[in-house]
Amino acid sequence: MKLEVRESQIEDVLVSAGVLTRQILNLEDEPRLLSRQMILPSGRLDLLYAYQAKLLLIELKAVEFRHNFLDQVLSYKADLLQYQQKGKLLQGDIESYLLCTEATSSEKSLAKKRGVNLTQYDPREVLDFFYENFKPIAFFTETKPIDIGIWNLHLVHEFIYLLQQTNSVIRLRELVDGSQKTLYNKIKFAFELRLINWLPNQDTISLTNLGKQYVERKDKILPERLSEEQAELLRKFVMQNPYESAVILGIAAVVESVFALSKNTYPVPMEQLIDFFAYYAGKYFDWQTPKAKFNATRMYSNYAVDLGLLAKTDDTIYFTPEGFRFTVQMQMHKNLKMVESLRVF
After folding, report:
1. Please, are residues 270 and 312 in contact by the beta-carbon 8 Å criterion?
2. What's the rounded Cα separation, in Å, for the pair 299 and 291?
3. pLDDT digits (tens, 9 = 90+) for 128-152
């Protein structure tokens, strides 16, 4: 099936991924880019690379081979030879490549006779390579919400506040009520919220800077509840660092899911959110049973309610004023994170 795509988008990937260019051209090493969209007397040359002692002229097409493409490549080569004669370009043999999505063996033979390497490539494979290796996308697709079994944020308070007295997991087991598994889940959850420094199978545990601020903002009268100051602190952290961890991404994702669904129906029916959240979070095939989808949606919507981002009944979800502000501001921070990570591969 033919893929419709602009040549410039394929070119973007090749420029950023020397390893892919090497594979397509069947080279031993990665070539070094000298120029992109180089202005020549006869037109714009897509790509010019240095490779070993040679120059590689590459004309990229996102369509099947056409005979006039050969004339275009040969005109570019003639221009480059003129530049070399005038001392305006590095010396070295010029090897010409024409990349097309389809080419027959007879067309390749014809091109070879005229001194052009006609190379067939699949733009879908180029875009697949981009998706799998582009840093922000790879990180986003690999980070997905997890179900730790903690239903509300305040359930970590008991052990979090004890970290002012001890930094030993073994000692915490003696001080905190409940099973070791429950404590482990709470510790893992607090780590996901970036409130603690902790490594599995080690006894040492301590508060992060965020964790220290969180403890300082506790409700002095009812320490077991989540104070407004604590909620504000976590809201800001999630908003500014939506990709920080699986749990933080899950909180951001459930709020964004409600926002997207609210464009169709408001208040948002819980039954719609359950399926949509699983899709949006990339967990549709992990949370396979209705119970798993329901529990995960309930859990993450609970966190969002705890933070003041959503409100809900048993079967409907509402946005809060803080939730709207959070969504708009988080989109800005997510875009900034993506821009900061625009170094490919």
Report:
1. yes
2. 12
3. 888 777 755 555 556 778 888 899 9
**Residue at 95 is within a domain:** yes
Residues 22-70 pLDDT 10s:
999 999 999 999 999 999 999 999 999 999 999 999 999 999 999 999 9
d(CA 244, CA 246): 7
CB neighbour list of residue 267: distance below 8 Å, 6 or more residues apart: 316, 317, 318
Task: Please return the burial class of 84, using the count of CB atoms within 10 Å of its CB with bins 0-12, 13-18 and 19+.
Answer: middle
**Degrees to nearest 5, angle at CA 304 with 307 and 299:** 130
Radius of gyration of the chain (CA): 28
Domain harbouring 124, CATH code:
3.40.1350.10
Instruction: Read off the pLDDT of residues 152-199 as tens digits, 9 standing for 90 and up.
Output: 999 999 999 999 889 988 898 888 877 889 999 999 999 999 999 999
Longest dimension (CA), the chain: 87
Spatial separation of the C-alpha atoms in residues 151 and 300, rounded to whole Å: 8
∠ Cα 303 305 308 (to 5°) = 115
**How many independent structural domains does the chain possess?**
3
Alpha-carbon gap, residue 209 to 194, rounded angstroms:
9
* Partners of 94 in the β-ladder: 55
The amino acid occupying position 197 is N
Same domain, residue pair 16 and 95:
yes
CA distance 125 to 85: 38
Asked if the structure places residue 230 within a domain, the reply is no
Cβ-based burial of 195 (10 A; exposed 0-12, middle 13-18, buried ≥19): buried
Same domain membership, residue 14 and residue 126:
yes
Range of the domain at 245: 237-340
Task: Please report, for the domain that includes residue 305, its CATH number.
Answer: 1.10.10.10
Q: Is residue 254 part of a domain?
A: yes
- 288: part of which helix (H) or strand (E)? none
